[in-house]
Structures are given as C-alpha cells and as structure tokens.
Amino acid sequence: MRISELSATADVPIATIKYYLREGLLPEGERLGATQATYGDAHLRRLRVVRALIEAGVSVAECRRVVSALDDPPASPHDLLGAAHSAVTATTDVGLDLGPAEALAARLGWRPGTCDPAQLAAVARALQALDHVGFSVPEAAMTAYVEGIRAMADAEIAGVPTESAEAAVRYVVLGTVLVEPLLLALRRVAEQVASAERFGIRE
Amino acid sequence: MRISELSATADVPIATIKYYLREGLLPEGERLGATQATYGDAHLRRLRVVRALIEAGVSVAECRRVVSALDDPPASPHDLLGAAHSAVTATTDVGLDLGPAEALAARLGWRPGTCDPAQLAAVARALQALDHVGFSVPEAAMTAYVEGIRAMADAEIAGVPTESAEAAVRYVVLGTVLVEPLLLALRRVAEQVASAERFGIRE
Questions:
Q1: Contact A154 B113 (CB under 8 A)
Q2: d(Cα B173, Cα B67) in Å, to the nearest integer?
Q3: pTM above the 0.90 mark?
C-alpha cells in the first residue's frame, strides 16, 4: 500500500509516519521510484506498536530500543525480559544506596543475580523520593504491594508464549510498557472504591 | 533562613527555587527589603514536596493543582482522594467508550457513582491502547491484577490518617503520585524474579 493508505488504515497522519521513518522507528518501504514507496502489513503492525508506545509516553530513544528488541530478539525469554525492561529504564545512578531496595526486593523472592541492577536502582530511586518528602508507606500497605505484585508477576510470566520468539517479544515488551498505565488507572479506581466504602460518599 | 540556606538545606539550586516561586509552586518568603526575603520550615517542607513531584515526572501545571489541594484541603477524605487524583489525571476524552472499563472496574467492586469518571476514562484509554496493538492480557493475569490491586487499595485506604486534614492530604496526594514509580519498579523486579524461576538464568 502507499503511505496515504497506510496513514488512513492506521489512523496516523502522513507527516507522523514520515517522522517515524526518519527516526528509524519504522523500516523504509519498498522503493517504487525516486519519490514513492510501498508498505506492507508488517509496516502496519509496526506502526501500530510505535504509535501505542509513543502515546503511552515512551520516548523516541526508548521506542527505538524496544523496536530493536522486536527486530532482533535475544535467545532466552529471561534475557528478552531484561532487554525489554532495560529499553525503558533509566541507566543506573552511580552512588545510589541499593540496600533498602534489596531488602524490599528480597520480600519478592529476589536473590543476588536474579535481576538486572538497573531495576533495583529504579526501586532505590523511588524509595529515595518517598524518603526525601518524609513519606513512609505503612507496613500493611507495603505487605499488600509485595504480595499483590508477586502474584501478578507470576501470572504474567506464566502467560509468556513460547511458540515463537516474536510472540514472546511482543508479549514481554508490550506487556511491560502498555500494561503499566492500565495498572495505575485501575489502582486509582480501586482506591476510590475502597475510599467510598470506608468514608462514604456525600450526597 | 535566606534563599541560599534554603537551597543548601534542600539541595535544590537557587535558580530552581526562584523558578518554583515564579510558577506559584512555592509561596513567597517574608520580605526583608527590596531584594531579600526569609523562608521558614514550611517553605522547606513544601520545597521538598514540589521537588519530589517534579522529579517523579509530574508537570508544573499538575504540581500546582496538587499544591493547591495541600493548601486548601476538601472537607471529606473521599473528596480529597478525588481532588488528588484529578490533579494528576488528564481530562476525560469526549466519545471514549467506557463500557469495557466499567466492566473491568466492576471486578474491583466499582458501582456507578463510586468513582470520578476521569479515572474510568484513564482505564478506558489504557485498554484502548492495548487493543490498538492487538495485545490481550491473559485472563489469569487480569484476575491477578484485579485481586492484587483491590487488596493494595484496601490496605492503602485503611492507612489514611484521620487526625488532621493536612496529614490526610499528604498521605493521599503523595501516596498517589510518589508510590506509583515504586509499584512499577517492584513489578519489573518481580517479573525478573518470576522469569528467572520459570526460564532459569544462563550462566
């Protein structure tokens, strides 16, 4: 299909598609001449993935790393998860104290070597931000976080498809990035429901 | 204290403090003359909160709404939660289909009227983004999300302090915004732990 049809089918403006092409997020189409190219279903699928990532707030640079994990998947599903996570994680801060993060991670079943240090660093940064404003998570809430998140992760990892590397990559990459907004939105709904039950709603 | 001491104590550059003052995120200090002002502990506490929100990715406009909820808290804890959530939530999209979001919210215990529509819209947007790329969350994972998130929200809401409005506002506003990065980071650690257990780690 021509770029105009790709644009209409995916509901993405032509100028945006050209931007994705320039940024290397979408592979070039097959050249038909000096100024025209044709695009296939693979372009359409990739365009939808890129669009969803960008709309989910993933930066162009992160998006490029996700796309490269889709194009060139690592051999094992565990390495794949690491690649997907590191594509959307800031680099490790030098000098960050990982102790409190490791203690919390241990409650999830973490042992040294079972996890990319950048993810522990993200936990450490989040704990530090809470600490800076003097906010301490009540122990009952922290227990609920640890238990709930471990149960969620078990269910997610049990669902990783193993029939093809492409299917595993899609599941892991998109499940990491695109499920996050869903979880945060569900948490707010659940908080409002629990709050209405505890405090009542004023008429 | 002078602005230089405020800057040193909070570890925030003077230029940044002046920016927060101009943007209305931090109240003016007490004037000592044409070019000098003095700041108290309330400024220091507020500066730490603003800094943490901005570093957590909250925009200046959202931050201003959070700060205004801190300055002028609503009367009931349930309204307060609504104010905190709406401060950091995009406005409702016109024409968004809320049906699938309502069905999912019902599994959290939602009934019509127990929740700000903007939060349901956020769930709907997240579901739509997944749908656009053809990603479906496995039913076992969705069940784990719903059950885990409801248990977390119950523990969080049970912990809302009721001894003062200021304490409740801090808990709800900071718990909403600053705990999110912690939960996402813990989820990635838990996924890597569960993945290492399922797939093993290559030596």
A1: no
A2: 9
A3: no
What is the interface pTM, i.e. ipTM, of the complex?
Answer: 0.81
CB < 8 Å to B118, chain A: none
- Quote the CA–CA distance of B6 and B2 in Å, as a whole number: 6
Expressed in angstroms, the distance from the first to the final Cα of chain A is 56
Q: List pLDDT tens digits, range A143-172.
A: 999 999 999 999 999 998 887 766 777 788
Say whether A159 and B141 touch across the interface (CB within 8 A). yes
pLDDT tens, A33-91? 888 899 999 899 889 888 877 877 778 888 888 788 778 777 777 777 777 777 767 66
Nearest CA in chain B to A171: B135
Mutate to test the interface with A, among B154, B171, B195 (most CBs of A within 10 A): B195
Q: For chain B, what is the total number of helices (H) and then of strands (E)? A: 9, 2
Distance CA A176, CA B61 (A): 28
How far, in Å, CA of B93 to CA of B97, rounded? 9
